[in-house]
């Protein structure tokens, strides 16, 4: 990989997360309750946290994975868990900064994988459907006149009759692509907004890389799950750095 060992000296990662979903199945309330108890026994200072988003099933099928509870600990760490659903997040709440996966998130992911697996009656029979790694990054430009293509390797064009916009107000876009050779799917979200009162523009990217499984990967196969997470983390990083122009790389201190 071209960017695997590249360092981003002025990284401004807002959030990074790992998400693991199982296959649709009948909801078992006792497993979620046992998971909650086990987590509070294992992790010190674990506290219930009010979610920022409403809990919604990811599929109209009521048996699909969904999360029911959000907990937090150590200021920057959040986990969401529920029916066939586990995610672990690093959130840049106090501006201490995300350093690297191994420094900021990996230990917590490993702990939660163990808790989740041990909470299942027969983890070898429970199969993983999807593993995802994602993160958001934001950087600021001291201007409200922004050409996105100067910072990201994407271009957008629009032509509207009788419209002569004089300033850039914002952009929101969502791209989905797949690599059939690697069997990895990518979601790329780009948001750019101008803040006239501050005379700045902010560009944020969200990169998700995920892989789907055919029922061969069990929740008892923790080393394999961890290996997949690391690979997807590298893929997300590769997409992010490939998306940046030289000008953006200079702003973020990529080298």
Chart the SSEs and their pairings.
Elements: E1 13-22, H1 29-42, E2 47-48, E3 66-73, E4 77-83, E5 85-91, H2 101-104, H3 106-118, E6 128-141, E7 170-179, E8 184-195, E9 200-212, H4 222-243, H5 246-252
Antiparallel strand pairs: 1-5, 1-6, 2-3, 3-4, 4-5, 6-9, 7-8, 8-9
Helix pairs in contact: 1-3
Describe it for me?
The protein is α+β, with helices and mostly antiparallel strands. The chain has helices at 29-42, 101-104, 106-118, 222-243, 246-252, and strands at 13-22, 47-48, 66-73, 77-83, 85-91, 128-141, 170-179, 184-195, 200-212. It has one domain. The chain is 24% helix and 33% strand. Strands 2-3-4-5-1-6-9-8-7 form a nine-stranded antiparallel beta sheet, covered by helices on one side. The two termini are 15 Å apart.
Quick description:
The protein is α+β, with helices and mostly antiparallel strands and 255 residues long. The protein has one domain. It is built from 5 helices and 9 strands.
**Cα gyration radius (Å):** 20 Å
Q: Could you report the average pLDDT, rounded to the nearest whole number?
A: 85
Strand content: 25-35%
Number of helices: 5
**What spatial form do the alpha-carbon principal axes imply?**
globular
Oligomer: single chain
Domain module tally: 1
**What string gives the helices and strands in order?**
EHEEEEHHEEEEHH
Strand order of the largest sheet: 2-3-4-5-1-6-9-8-7
Largest sheet: 9 strands, antiparallel
């Amino acid at each position: 990989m071209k960017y695997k060992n590249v360092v981003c000296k002025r990284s401004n990662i807002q959030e990074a997360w790992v998400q693991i979903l199982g296959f649709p199945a009948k909801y078992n309330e006792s497993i979620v309750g046992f998971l909650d108890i086990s987590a509070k026994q294992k992790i010190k200072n674990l506290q219930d946290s009010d979610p920022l988003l409403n809990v919604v099933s990811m599929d109209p099928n009521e048996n699909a994975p969904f999360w029911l509870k959000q907990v937090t600990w150590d200021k920057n760490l959040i986990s969401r868990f529920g029916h066939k659903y586990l995610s672990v997040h690093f959130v840049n709440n106090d501006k201490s900064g995300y350093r690297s996966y191994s420094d900021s998130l990996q230990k917590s992911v490993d702990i939660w994988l163990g808790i989740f697996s041990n909470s299942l009656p027969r983890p070898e029979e429970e199969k993983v459907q999807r593993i995802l790694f994602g993160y958001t990054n934001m950087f600021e430009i001291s201007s409200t006149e922004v050409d996105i293509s100067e910072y990201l390797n994407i271009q957008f064009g629009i032509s509207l009759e009788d419209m002569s916009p004089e300033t850039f107000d914002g952009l929101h876009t969502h791209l989905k692509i797949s690599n059939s050779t690697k069997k990895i799917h990518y979601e790329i979200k780009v948001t750019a907004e101008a803040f006239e009162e501050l005379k700045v523009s902010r560009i944020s990217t969200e990169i998700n890389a995920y892989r789907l499984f055919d029922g061969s990967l069990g929740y008892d196969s923790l080393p394999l799950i961890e290996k997949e997470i690391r690979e997807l983390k590298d893929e997300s990083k590769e997409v992010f750095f490939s998306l940046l122009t030289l000008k953006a790389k200079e702003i973020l201190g990529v080298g």
